[in-house]
Design a protein that fits this description.
The complex is a heterodimer of chains A (404) and B (357). Chain A is mostly helical and 404 residues long. Helix content of chain A is 56%, strand content 0%. Chain B is mainly alpha-helical and 357 residues long. Helices cover 71% and strands 3% of the residues of chain B. The longest helix of chain B has 33 residues, at 188-220. Chain B is globular.
Chain lengths: 404, 357
């Protein structure tokens, strides 16, 4: 299979047809396969060199035509599951997509004859298939949520499966969506990051923390040794991390989740119980450190605005913030003792940096006073010299020291 | 009385002894005879003195900075930060050095334009003008080389841009860029070189030229405007009358310098990170801003020439014309004043646009 000939009868003839039949010919110019020198006939068979439709689309020439929906995965897999073939075009590309697809909910249902489920072309499009790295591709990280939502937000389409259709709406309120779209962080999780892509299926209750833990490694390690693990991730549990953080609409965590009548903890632990008191204690530690660091930051920013050099303290403040994050992380073991060290270190840094900021502001005041005194002294000196000039020019040179 | 007499005699003999060996009375005679013309433009004479005063401030504060500054990539930034945060009055010395550098260049520009508008460049002061212009160039060189020394993010990238521009010069450009950088890119070798330029090479040349410039001013005396006949110009003794007035002005400049340093301490910024992307809106110091903005406005290609190259040719031609001003402006003083006005308008407008755009 070499480069496509300059003249491809498939494109030539289909371009001359009406809109519906022209479709593939109009779309194919952007297709990644064409860019790699492949042609329509490499997928659909037939003889692209013949202008006669009877010849070019004859079964004798291997013409396969349009595959049935149930055959599409196998149709694509004929090349994409062939390592020797793929090595020529995309040597780093995986070749297990078809195998994974067969384990997915989509694949299993398709095998059962449900042609409404997603096949390769529903996510990757057809005839204008683009590389995953192409920003126009429907499976480019920024576009994955929208691509999944085309079906999963469609109430009519999802009705037979009795699954919710609000995932995309919830996801758009989440920290992950913000990281993906506002910060442009392409590594931020999309649907495929948690559910898989070719092997897409919902994580089971017991494996939610494993899924979250692929990115939030340390949080998962602490959760694994917490008392919550047995309850949340066990049979009948709420699904590990999801119990407190939800799934698609994950928000920025705050201490409001820990303490108060509307906190997440209060859903299981009544006010006044030892567990609720521990949660309130942990919330107060975090709020205390956060408040202390913010106070230091305000003072240092103020000093910086006056032009004071406080960069060392500002760098230390970053250490303070890191200790706050460590404390928030340690919280997931639900052992207050684990939080003690980062809280103490963070508070010490907050105290030092606050002192550094206040010292800088005090130094600023001293500089201003020093400036005022210096300017007054300079003004006196100027006045004295001016007086000396007047005396000289008023003919009082006699009173001046004699020149040598 | 006898003691007084012998004391006077002793003093006279000592001074005679010194004069025989140093000729110091010649300097005293010079000072006694030096006069300053009094007319409407006398105030412009102060700017020569202000420039000299600020040059002295630069030497004084520069020597103090050298006590702590370390010219290596690993230590430069930290040594300046140490100076500003741990050394008593270190912040003041650095701020005064930085502010004084800027005021020095501003003062030198004012001094230069005052010479143009009073036509003080005319015969026989051509060499005074030339030495002054070279000194201004040296001051810009001091500014460019000193800017990199704190090794912060802004100075690193500004030097990168500056040496890139030098590299676009035809024929010698790439060699000049490599010479300035000490390699292909701005790095440790550039810092060492710039430090060398800033504290040894440029000061040595500048000391010689300042001496020559002052000597020439001394030889020819202060110029009077061409439209006033010399015999009608009133005069004031340089010492002590004018000198004391200059002293008052210097005190004023010192007060301004102290105020700027105390209220707007020169910031240090972040340590240079060659792997970071260039800070947004990066631009050179104000005295290079007009040229920088002009280069930005020139299209990338004009006819068969590269835009940057065309800009450099333009600046080169302008600089050459300006240096040769006393020769082509002899008898064409109105034209020289017109060119001066045009140049001020251009520099002011493009510097302003360079800031706001």
């Amino acid at each position: 299979m070499g480069a496509a000939p300059a003249q491809d009868s498939c494109v030539t003839c289909h371009s001359a047809l009406d809109d519906a039949a022209k479709g593939p010919a109009a779309l194919i110019k952007n297709d990644v396969h064409i860019a790699h020198g492949l042609s329509c006939a490499d997928c659909h068979g037939g003889d692209r060199t013949s202008d006669d439709p009877e010849v070019s689309m004859s079964k004798a020439k291997g013409f396969k035509g349009k595959p049935a929906r149930t055959d599409i995965p196998k149709f694509c897999a004929s090349c994409h599951s062939n390592p020797d073939f793929m090595r020529k075009y995309a040597p780093q590309e995986r070749v297990d997509q078809f195998e994974l697809y067969q384990t997915s909910v989509h694949g299993k249902r398709l095998a059962g004859g449900d042609t409404a489920v997603a096949t390769c072309i529903d996510c990757h499009s057809v005839h204008d298939i683009r590389s995953v790295k192409d920003t126009m591709s429907p499976v480019y990280p920024l576009r994955v949520p929208e691509t999944c939502s085309r079906c999963h937000s469609d109430q009519q389409k999802m009705a037979p499966y009795k699954i919710p259709t609000n995932q995309f709406e919830q996801y758009k309120t989440s920290v992950h969506w913000a990281a993906l779209t506002k910060r442009g962080d392409l590594s931020a999780p999309t649907c495929a990051s948690c559910h898989g892509n070719h092997g897409a299926k919902p994580p089971q209750v017991g494996s939610v923390s494993d899924v979250c833990g692929t990115c939030h490694v340390l949080f998962d390690q602490l959760y694994q040794k917490s008392a919550h693990k047995a309850v949340f991730s066990g049979a009948g549990g709420g699904g590990g991390c999801m119990v407190c953080h939800s799934n698609h609409g994950i928000q920025n965590p705050s201490t409001k989740m820990l303490a108060g009548a509307t906190s997440v903890c209060s859903g299981c632990h009544e006010q006044g119980t030892p567990q609720a008191k521990t949660a309130a204690q942990m919330a107060s530690w975090i709020d205390g450190l956060d408040g202390a660091l913010k106070q230091s930051e305000t003072v240092l920013t103020s000093a910086e605005k006056y032009g004071m050099e406080v960069s060392e303290a500002q760098v230390r403040l970053i250490d303070g913030r890191e200790n706050l994050v460590k404390a928030q992380l340690a919280l997931h073991s639900m052992q207050p003792a684990d939080m003690q060290k980062p809280i103490d270190l963070g508070m010490a840094i907050a105290k030092d940096t606050l002192q550094a900021g206040q010292d800088a502001l005090h130094e600023k005041d001293i500089r201003r006073y020093g400036l005022a005194v210096s300017v007054i002294l300079i003004a006196i000196a100027m006045f004295a010299v001016r007086t000396l000039i007047r005396r000289i020019e008023n003919g009082k040179q006699a009173e001046l020291p004699k020149t040598l | 009385m006898g003691n007084n007499l012998s004391s006077t005699e002793f003093k006279a003999k000592t001074l005679d002894w010194l004069d025989e060996r140093t000729g110091w009375r010649m300097v005293r005679d010079l000072m006694d005879h030096k006069v300053v013309p009094i007319h409407a433009g006398t105030k412009w004479y102060y700017f020569g003195g202000i420039t000299l005063f600020l040059f002295g401030v630069q030497i004084f504060t520069g020597v103090l900075l050298l006590l702590y500054y370390r010219p290596t990539v690993a230590e430069a930034f930290d040594s300046v930060r140490f100076l500003m945060t741990r050394v008593e009055f270190g912040w003041l010395i650095r701020s005064i050095h930085s502010w004084s550098a800027n005021l020095l260049i501003l003062s030198a520009f004012i001094h230069m334009f005052s010479v143009v508008f009073t036509h003080a460049y005319r015969r026989p002061r051509e060499l005074t003008w030339l030495s002054g212009i070279v000194l201004l160039g040296l001051l810009l060189g001091f500014g460019f080389s000193g800017y990199l020394l704190p090794w912060n993010q802004i100075s690193y990238f500004a030097t990168k841009v500056g040496t890139d521009v030098a590299g676009t010069m035809p024929v010698a450009g790439p060699t000049l860029s490599r010479f300035l950088r000490g390699g292909e890119d701005v790095g440790g070798a550039t810092l060492t070189r710039f430090f060398d330029f800033h504290v040894i090479i440029l000061p040595l040349i500048a000391f010689g030229l300042v001496g020559l410039h002052v000597l020439l001013v001394q030889k020819h005396g202060m110029s009077t405007p061409s439209d006033i006949p010399p015999e009608k110009v009133a005069q004031m003794k340089f010492f002590p009358n004018f000198f004391l007035r200059e002293l008052v002005v210097w005190y004023g400049v010192l007060a301004v310098l102290g105020t700027l340093a105390a209220i707007f301490p020169w910031e240090l910024g972040e340590k240079a990170d060659p792997f970071a992307s260039a800070p947004a809106g990066i631009r050179p110091e104000w005295y290079f801003l007009a040229q920088f903005y002009t280069l930005k406005l020139i299209p990338s290609h004009v006819w068969i020439l590269e835009g940057e190259l065309l800009g450099l040719f333009g600046f080169g031609a302008l600089a050459a014309g300006w240096v040769l001003l006393p020769f082509w402006a002899a008898g064409r003083h109105k034209l020289a004043s017109g060119v001066g006005v045009f140049l001020i308008c251009y520099l002011a407008a493009f510097t302003f646009l360079g800031y706001v755009k």
